[in-house]
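User: Structure tokens for both sequences below?

Assistant:
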Amino acid sequence: METGMEEIHSSSKEQEKGTPQVFRLWKPIEFTLNWANSDTSILDDIADSWFIQREKLQENSSEYKEFMERLKRRHAIETGVIERMYDLSAGVTETFINEGFRSSLLSHNDTNIEPQALMHFLNDHLEAVNWVFDIIKDDRPFSVSMINQLHQQVTRHQETAEGRDPQGNKTKIKLLKGKFKEWENNPTRPDGTQILYCPPEHVASEMDQLVNIYNHLSATGTHVLILAAWVHHAFTTIHPYQDGNGRVARLLGSLILIRGGLFPLTVLREEAKVKYLEALEKADSGNPQPFVSYLGEIQKRNIQEALNVQEVTPSSFEAVQDALIQRIRAQKQAVLQTQMANLAAGRQKIFTICDTYLQDVEQNLRKKYGTDAGVYLKKCSFEDTGVYQPTSRPRQDFYFGQIIAYAQKHNYYFNRSLPKAWFILGFDFSEDKKYHVGITIHHFGYEDGALAIGVFLEYKGKNDEDISNTVVPLAIPPHVVSAYTNGDGKEANIRRYLEDTLTAVLAQIASEL
């Protein structure tokens, strides 16, 4: 049933028509230096804030529990869609995610299979995800037996798989649930190229090797993102089952990530070919970085959403009062005072990274534009509470409205009570053609250590207080980092975001001149 994914996989190996080839995707699995040296900073930049917030959410928030249920349901839906087991319209997908799987919610043309079959598949996938959480809760070891049970669960209502007869013709064969394949499952591309996975006679030994390598890497502290990506990729090259390999691969990746305090590995349908499969193909060729980064992108997306889940669900007036009192008392504790000092230092470090980069940009732009445009940089750090002239407003609050609008546009909670910082990169092309590129650093979500770097663009009038000033709409999302995180990767990612952002903003200005 998962031939859709298999036919797309390894598309970069496609040969010219008329010259069919055989491509051996599988080779004995190993953990190489390319995997070990993969950059995980896309997750590391924000992980510390998430792990702090996770403890609070698990303790107090029923809203977080429902958030996790929605993630599970999304995984269950999307894993079948990308395997072409069924189609499901976008509207009913969101309804199912929010309200649960009920055939009564289906309308005509919402799906391409019988509603009863759809419900069976969805519930099998959901039960498999729940079983992964149970495995973690019960601290069950990672083993071949466990993987076989996972396959049996996810294929519970699937009776057949595609195979080939001795003549090489496609045929339906009985699906072996929880048992390794007895027939080859090598897909053939439209050009005739055959992709060869692990032969049936080597599957058992390769699966034992996968478990042994995983257990060694886990015991020696391999980064959870690298570990999940490697297991997923190694498993897909083995392709141990007649069908269901893609579903099990994502569940195994999910198990490793959830055990590390993260979220299920959910590949969205719109990302399946452009991001997921292309990254897997690059891993096939010995370059695992795109696949590691893609899994990190999925986790960062979920973390940013989770950071905007309320810590305390307002179930009653009394409960909210109790939670508020606990928070006030906690703020007086010495441990929290140390944490707040570390937070202040981390905020200022992020400001310094941005400041250093933007000063270089300002100098380079001045040299390039000369007298064609006035270029200047203004700034306000987290520690600066002075007054911005010609107004008497506190400097940190000068761009308060723009930050609120930016947070609303990108759908996250902005904690306006905590310090903010900003930069203005100004361009004066003429008396009536002036632009301000605003870069703001402000708090993101409900965890105090998570910071968003965002951007807005203003068209200025003849002076800063001109009522004709307008904000130019931009669709650039924030870059979210943790103030507690250190490392070169964090600085490199911030500088890359600022470069990409300024490139897009300058292109916008150029299109308006």
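Moving on to the next sequence.
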Amino acid sequence: MDAVTKEILGKLPRLISHRPLEWAIKSPDRPAIVEDEVTWTYKGLADAVDEAKSLLIGLGVRPGDRVLLINENCRTFVALLLACSELNACTVSVNARLSASEIDNIQAHCQPRRTFYTAEVSPDDIAHGERHGAEIREIGMLGKLCIGTLADVQEEPVFKESEKQVAVMIYTTGTTGNPKGVMLSHRNLLFISEATKDVRGFTPDDYVYLTLPLSHIFGLSSSLLTSLYAGATLHLVPGFNAAHLFKTLPKGISVFQGVPAMHSSLLEYAEINKVEIDAPRLRYLSSGGAPMDMDLKARVESTLGLPLNNGYGLSETSPTIAVPPYDKPRQDGAIGNAIPGVQTRFVDPTTGRDVPEGEIGELWIHSPSVMLGYYNNPEATAAVINKDGWFNTGDLARIEEDGAIFIVGRSKELIIRSGFNVYPPELEGVINSHPDVRYSAVVMRKVPDNEEVVAFVQPVQGKKIDVEVFKHWLGERVAPYKKPSHLIIMAQLPAAPSGKPLKHKLVEIAKELN
């Protein structure tokens, strides 16, 4: 272990709840959680955590239990998350907007002691709770909450060591449609908070707009936990709405982290309504969760006068692997340099050997942020983490002389057409540069003795795209082998609650094309 990693680890508390509760003592009156109608100071947050802890104990939750939180972003989730931390119970965070079958499959897999539904902000939560026979209660600071029945399940072992104790389980969206439970320890998550707060410049003076789902690792770790770790204020929003963001930015928002579709929607809202975006304190913008094209980056930066930082990470790495420092933004498509404490390798997937600098290989990382494994799935864990602890991201990437990393695509999504490599993110970037395109997704379709390129395109609201005219426009900008065999216009691409396109669903649609 290098000196930088040791230094970071030496600063960490034991549990993810410890640092926010320390701020409750240092700065009790500073706002911690803001909703449109309610504000909790850090002292108020600590009181809510105590109330949630008593509730959990009274409902039979034990150390080592899994506690399933079907949720949308709200203060109740934060209190329950930190209370589970204090009890050494594992929070399983799942978005309420998932379908009934998706939620039921996750519940059956993780076997929670109790299931809670954040009814205060989510009609979907209430519907899921009613379906499961949950009781709706009004509980002090926590507000309206649906509480599921007590389950007779086996608790997991409890460890004193931060690196062994599971804090959170996130179920991945997955490119295959088969989610896996990613087990993240307290140290995994704390390491990211400590390693990235200075890279992003987070301080107690920041006011962070958080609409990224707390069921997704980007929202949970990079925004929520890192902000609370730094003593910042969070404005929680259940579900993204461009109009709400537009109206909230003038209130002093200093940080906005989102997926590309969110940034695009804000610009689209301002353009359609012919209004200027007023963001007097905004200082930091970042995009992650999905590839970001250079045209969107340029439009956001021109409109807001700030760099749009292109970060990168995975649920399995808690998540951040690389991001440009806030004071050294990049003008290209790089995801930045690896954050402190993260080692990288670029491996030829056919030979298993490291490729030379500048060449494309699978990105492997070694870091204290790498997950403990997939819950009850040792085979899947062994397929991505080798005996030396190196994790295979499954992404194809290259590193330049200055240490900047460029992601070129998923190794499993690489399209080999007539012997030529087609990288979907590259083609999506060209498609997204068209002024009438809001978003796109490129997938592969197998045909006899070859692979075809299929592109799905979502137009800007109110715009119509002529397929033949668009194909001609695209043909002038890409090599012939990259041109899609099929170009499908869709009013709305299927997406996860985080905004990430569900490519496995598009692959199924592509299979049915003639």
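User: Anything stand out in the second?

Assistant: The chain is about 30% helix and 25% strand.
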